[in-house]
């Protein structure tokens, strides 16, 4: 059961059991109201629910088995993204306590499901997106969660990075070193390492993305890591020779932005 520590678990009837197809990230919503929506979410006539709700005072409620069952918050987006309702109105910002609560939810999802620590304005990319971007397919709520809350997503992600501890631990990675490792390590003896510490930073990020199993996070850019990196490149929209598993500047910089490391030459 995927229950978030620190959240008040209050399961509701409006969920689709075992409906989750993919762990792309989290969708930010605004309640456009006040008070816990538990009662509304727990009556079948409403056909409404979310994974989480964060009150203005920072209280977190969780309404379903996140990552397994999906809630009814964003129509066609439900099988792919979890959802967080935030108390208040579209023309008001998240309180500091709410921002902290959403950041803790995101940090938990990053660890539990590999949600990248990145803001996206998308219905397909992995990261922290928002309801209105989904248009008709996501239920036609263009004003959810409102411009003020949308603009707070980078601050939520920055705080989530602090919570998961990648801001200080990431450091910098040399593109030339990582490319050299990706060319040399697969053909060398098992476990051969070329630039171990930098490769480890990249491998931890690939693991957090859900693309590399923990046993291959070993500092050697071997065939498993090349395969994982190729999957990342495809996720970022590359194909053919641009998705061969050898890091390029664009993909590595984007991976670093999501996982707290910088890229040098
Ligand atoms: Zn919404």
Which characteristics define this entry?
alpha/beta, six-stranded mixed sheet, 34% helix, elongated, binds zinc ion, Amidase/PGRP_sf, PGBD-like_sf, PGBDSf, N-acetylmuramoyl-L-alanine amidase activity
Write a structural description:
The protein is 34% helix and 12% strand. The chain is an alpha/beta fold. The protein has 2 domains: 8-164, 3-Layer(aba) Sandwich (Lysozyme-like), CATH 3.40.80; 167-264, no CATH class. It has a 6-stranded mixed sheet, with helices on one face. Helix 2 (96-113) crosses helix 4 (153-164) and helix 7 packs across helix 9. The protein is elongated and about 60 Å long. The structure holds zinc ion. Zinc ion binds next to loops. Residues 29, 131, 141, 144 line the site of zinc ion.
Q: CATH topology of the largest domain, which one?
A: Lysozyme-like
Query: Mind summarizing the main beta sheet?
Result: 6 strands, mixed
Total beta strand runs: 10
Give me the side-by-side strand order of the main sheet: 1-5-4-7-3-8
Helix content: 25-40%
Q: In angstroms, what separates the terminal alpha carbons? A: 43 Å
Structural class: alpha/beta
Low-confidence region ranges: none
Strand and helix order:
EEEHEEEEHEHHHEHHHHE
Our estimate of the beta-strand percent is 5-15%
Mean pLDDT: 93
Q: Please compute the radius of gyration using only Cα atoms.
A: 19 Å
Number of separate domains: 2
Ions, cofactors and other ligands present here are: zinc ion
Instruction: Assign an overall shape.
Output: elongated
How many helices? 9
GO molecular function: N-acetylmuramoyl-L-alanine amidase activity
Protein name: Peptidoglycan-binding domain-containing protein
Organism: Peterkaempfera bronchialis
